Amino acid sequence: MMKTDTLDQIAYALFLAERDVYEVTKFAERYPELTVETAYDIQDKLIELKCKHEQTSISGLKLGLTSKAKQQMMGVHEPTYGVLLANMAVNAQHPITLKSLIHPKIEPEIAFVFKQDLVGPVVTVAHVLTATAYVAPAMEIIDSRYLNFHFTLPDVIADNSSSSRYIVGSQKYAVNEVDLVNMGCIFTQNDEMIATSTAGSVMGHPARAIAWMANKLIARGQHIRAGDIVLSGALTGSATMHAGDSFTVSFDGMESLSVQVE
Ligand code: OOG
């Protein structure tokens, strides 16, 4: 068992690393007793700190490491989730600044916006689809607070699953308007195609990743709320962001979404 004080210290160290834009070393090496459950306790504490100090609130949730491409890239073989805050939302109309970020990467995502609460423990793909108001193309900027983006599963969970910023397209699509298994995805950087994928690369169906999370959340007394935005996890590996880059994600049947880096 780890002491509450230690959990508070880790949460605060991660909070400061993000606020003051520097890397920290992994905690799992120093605290071999750090489990996945304890890591989610740290994540909760980190979110509390961020809501209080940044005067923001929870806007939704994100899944991480739900596709083979991402699991292989990061050497972690289980999905994770994290919390999205209102101040992480970025408008695609404006160039994105990298000033306050450590070593940001960007990846294509599908956003689900909920019209009903979704409460585990027996949530299925069908329940997720019924509770969804709409889906939209999205991108997530991840920015691990760990040195060289290296972490173990508990480390990345404590760090809110590397969450940093998110961008959601303005066009909304009903779940039956798009093929959430076979829909192709093309990810381009500076007009060059860097990765392709299909919606089903996320656990066979992105709604399956969300069902997995809903069934995990209930064990912690939490659930997906009506109005929440949920990112179902990257469909491809992530791309390192540099000043001047542009990124576009194009899904079959959805309007493409582009961002420009300042
Ligand atoms: C962990 C978060 C990954 C995704 O969608 O796979 C993630 C990381 O790679 O830093 O958000």
Automatic annotation (TrEMBL):
Superkingdom of the source species: Bacteria
Keywords for the protein's UniProt record, in alphabetical order: Lyase
Enzyme Commission no: 4.1.1.77, 4.2.1.80
Enzyme superclass (EC): lyase
Gene Ontology MF term list: 2-oxopent-4-enoate hydratase activity; 4-oxalocrotonate decarboxylase activity
Any Gene Ontology CC annotation: cytoplasm
Protein name: 4-oxalocrotonate decarboxylase
Pfam families linked: FAA_hydrolase
Species this chain originates from: Lysinibacillus sphaericus
Gene: mhpD_1
Residues annotated as domain Fumarylacetoacetase-like C-terminal: 77-261
